[in-house]
Design a protein that fits this description.
The protein folds into two domains: about 150 residues, Rossmann fold (3-Layer(aba) Sandwich), CATH 3.40.50; about 130 residues, Rossmann fold (3-Layer(aba) Sandwich). Helix content is about 30%, strand content about 25%. The chain contains eight helices and 15 strands. The protein has a seven-stranded mixed beta sheet with strand order 3-2-1-4-5-6-7, with helices on both faces. A six-stranded parallel beta sheet has the order 9-8-12-13-14-15, with helices on both faces. β8, α5 and β9 form a beta-alpha-beta unit. α1 crosses α8 and α6 runs parallel beside α7. The protein is globular. The mean pLDDT is about 95.
């Protein structure tokens, strides 16, 4: 029987994956000391068979990263093959040197995971495929787009249209529209590299008038892009706006700001547990493991 170690950040998702794989589920207990250090204890026995570690690296990112590395390292003491499933991979946006002197943190992560003994990495909707090239082990990026599209098929929508908030997400919106069975468009935006401020460059859009829209994104952190896109689309006299995203970080009251801008509902997956995570991606991860 294969082993599955459930990291603290992904316990529910790990349980679902473990059930589908009929794996030996080993839970982990984390104690955080007053100085911020984490002490991890595994609750259960690990056999010498293949081991899967499931741990998302969302905020607190550094703590969850250290825990992921610790779990992989412990798994390697028992198993020669350690498959590391990181549903949400923090630091994935730091995959190149945008401004001189910046550290490419993804390069550091690649070395760390290989160093502690990971044989394979599986991630979900990584920010950019560039990040995976830093893992000098077998790596795979799976997408939650079909799972999200399937969920939206159950919602009654008026003449729906899929929208990407920027040109970078155009392919994602195209794939979502294909799975969902509708048309799609992509807005154009600019972001100031230093201040992070977002501006929508697209001008008048007649095709959104009176239609329900699904804004599709890979992740929502502070929600700035979604808020700007929503405000712009509302001015074009669209009907309701829904948001579909894989990873809902929703930092600094982002959900409140997005709702205030005019979004009816945010639907995300369980890569990051929370009240918007209505879509389970355990089947997609299980397929990648198999």
């Amino acid at each position: 029987m294969i082993n599955l170690i459930a990291g603290n950040s992904s316990e529910d998702l790990a349980k679902k994956i473990s059930k589908k794989l009929k794996a030996n589920l080993v839970k982990s207990e984390v104690r955080v000391f007053p100085d911020g250090e984490s002490k991890i204890t595994l609750k259960g026995k690990i056999s010498k068979n293949k081991t899967i570690v499931v741990q998302s690296i969302y905020p607190p990112v550094d703590s969850n990263l250290i825990q992921a590395l610790g779990l992989v390292s412990k798994a390697k003491e028992y198993s020669n093959e350690v498959i590391t499933v990181i549903p949400y991979l923090g630091y994935a946006r730091q995959d190149r040197e945008f401004l001189p002197g910046e550290i490419v943190t993804m390069k550091v992560l690649g070395k760390l995971f290989k160093g502690v003994g990971a044989s394979e990495i599986i991630v979900v909707d990584i920010h950019s495929d560039i990040g995976l090239k830093f893992f000098k082990i077998k790596s795979e990026n799976v997408t939650a787009v079909p799972d999200l599209a399937k969920y939206f098929k159950k919602i009654k929508l008026k003449n729906p249209l899929v929208v990407s908030p920027d040109q970078g997400g155009k392919e994602r919106a195209k794939e979502f529209a294909k799975q969902f069975g509708s048309e799609f468009i992509a807005l154009s935006k600019t972001r100031d590299r230093k201040s992070g401020k977002v501006k929508i460059k697209t001008t008048g859009l007649d095709e959104v008038k009176g239609r329900d829209l699904i804004l599709v994104d890979d992740m929502i952190s502070t929600g700035g892009s979604i808020v700007k896109a929503t405000e712009f689309l509302k001015k074009q006299k669209c009907n309701r706006i829904f948001v579909a995203c894989t990873h809902a970080l929703l930092m600094n009251d982002a959900e409140k700001k997005i709702r205030k801008a005019g979004v009816s509902k945010i639907i995300s997956t369980n890569t990051i547990p929370g009240k918007t995570s209505m879509v389970d991606i355990s089947n997609t991860i299980v397929k990648a493991i198999r």
